Amino acid sequence: MTSTAAGPVSGSVSATEFESVWRDLQGVAFSQGYLDVDGVRTRYLHAGDPKLPALVLLHGSGGHAEAYVRNLRSHAEHFSTWSIDMLGHGYTDKPGHPLEVGHYVAHLIGFLDAIGVQRAHISGESLGGWVAARAAADHPDRIDRLVLNTAGGSQADPEVMKRIITLSMAAAENPSWETVQARIKWLMADKSKDYDDIVASRQAVYRQPGFVAAMSDIMALQDPEIRARNLLGEKEYGSITAPTLVLWTSDDPTADVSEGRRIASMIPGARFEVMPDCGHWPQYEDPETFNRLHLDFLLGKPA
């Protein structure tokens, strides 16, 4: 099914209001910590009763758990909600080798084991969507519902790949305010905002010792040869049995709406939604609309 979601609703954060990670989490009963996932020290943000169904949120390339700070409150009412730093990202351990999709999938499945759940809802943005789709294809017994949010992994656009490498390596090699902010603004439709607190959070991540090498390992999937053997096609998407929402945006910098629609067409019974006036982070840019669409789907409400 295809539809276009409504734009920002009353209560959304305006361009003139101060934005901060703490403001987004203020009043939310959440925890931050680390779990051992098959020897990998893995950072997480968690909100919600652990007895509720599990939901794992996966960020994009070079990202970290703060990508979902505006979604924890609403989702914690219904799910044991985990936003993690993926393998080699954020404050999770860096394995020291180029990272391919299979490495991320193994880490995700290991994380489900570490939190003691057999099945979980998985929602991934960009790289996270690529990993989530591959996990759903390879481990159907572990995935309940699946959300692919401006997901990667369906194509290889040389210009986009070059742009990701250039912005990401510049930010890691010289994590100045300007280089990190350029990487963040590339994700967003609204270039008028400064995104100061997200920039500061990512700058701290990128200033960790050894992060240049870690970013180089993360960028492996932008190498044409490595990417080619990790891409998903009709076989992989067609084998997904989990109920799936493919969520795209009007201003995604990695691929236009037609690519999102193409992905949805390959997944049996997939729902397709478009969020206007958003780029690559709709969960952050318009959390009210995202949370409504996301929760309606995860809770099984009809479109």
UniProtKB/TrEMBL annotation:
InterPro entries: AB_hydrolase_1 (IPR000073), AB_hydrolase_fold (IPR029058), AB_hydrolase_sf (IPR050266)
Record EC number: 3.7.1.14
Pfam families cross-referenced by the UniProt entry: Abhydrolase_1
Gene3D superfamilies: alpha/beta hydrolase
Keyword terms: Hydrolase
Stored SUPFAM superfamilies: alpha/beta-Hydrolases
GO molecular function terms attached to this record: hydrolase activity
Superkingdom, natural source: Bacteria
Boundaries of every AB hydrolase-1 domain copy: 53-287
Keyword Hydrolase recorded: yes
Protein name: 2-hydroxy-6-oxonona-2,4-dienedioate hydrolase
Lineage: Bacteria, Bacillati, Actinomycetota, Actinomycetes, Mycobacteriales
